[in-house]
């Protein structure tokens, strides 16, 4: 049985922190792992800014609710889910993803969890496991699934390379150039055709 494992940000929805920074007018939140490679440090920095601004989970979810999936993303996902099994595997947090999952028709997502106090303040975060995308794909394979994976960024390369077929989608030129062996697409129609070929 096949499972298609899809990245979320940059593939189906915009980068959540960047879109949130724009929507909320807090440019400091545009800092990414390219500026601060230590993800734990980056998250502490982001949560510190949210605390300073008095932004709790409710305010953040209201802002994220104004962000839309990429044009064509829902139709692509609907078609793919009617055709085979799909899991979105993301490094984001379930509470941030929720307003976007609603707009995508509640697909299955495996991601991480924010720790939230009773008053809505985000006090911390829990990562599900190390190298979550690769670890999840290997776990699916260990119980009899064949995986096909697609994503746009460095953190997707593990699951893409470990799958029976893997694709770059809407990736920056630098990642495409570093991985010339991986098929790269920018249109949902092209990705759908490649996935169907791999699954059939
Ligand atoms: Mg991504």
TrEMBL record:
<keyword id="KW-0028">Amino-acid biosynthesis</keyword>
<keyword id="KW-0378">Hydrolase</keyword>
<dbReference type="InterPro" id="IPR011863">
    <property type="entry name" value="HSK-PSP"/>
</dbReference>
<comment type="similarity">
    <text>Belongs to the HAD-like hydrolase superfamily. SerB family.</text>
</comment>
<keyword id="KW-0479">Metal-binding</keyword>
<dbReference type="Pfam" id="PF00702">
    <property type="entry name" value="Hydrolase"/>
</dbReference>
<dbReference type="InterPro" id="IPR036412">
    <property type="entry name" value="HAD-like_sf"/>
</dbReference>
<dbReference type="InterPro" id="IPR050582">
    <property type="entry name" value="HAD-like_SerB"/>
</dbReference>
<keyword id="KW-0718">Serine biosynthesis</keyword>
<protein>
    <recommendedName>
        <fullName>phosphoserine phosphatase</fullName>
        <ecNumber>3.1.3.3</ecNumber>
    </recommendedName>
</protein>
<dbReference type="InterPro" id="IPR023214">
    <property type="entry name" value="HAD_sf"/>
</dbReference>
<keyword id="KW-0460">Magnesium</keyword>
<comment type="pathway">
    <text>Amino-acid biosynthesis; L-serine biosynthesis; L-serine from 3-phospho-D-glycerate: step 3/3.</text>
</comment>
